[in-house]
Write a structure and sequence with these properties.
Elements: H1 15-24, H2 29-38, H3 45-52, H4 60-70, H5 74-77
Amino acid sequence: MRIRKQPLGDRNIVGAKIEAKRKELGMKQIDLLTQLQIKGVELTASGLSKLEGQIRSVCDYEIVAIADVLGVSVSWLLGRE
């Protein structure tokens, strides 16, 4: 597992939670990307890495799909729960 070299950015508020939940589930980035692709969300490995690092904005439909794949609510990802 690679350690993040850059500090977290400020382009989204869900990235750190996505990364933490993915790792808690023992899911690799490629596994998350595959599940997102099944749901119709095209995201590259680089895009996911930037999203988790909070240096890429995230679309609403991506948040919904990610929440579904990770088994969490959108509210949880947004820090509302």
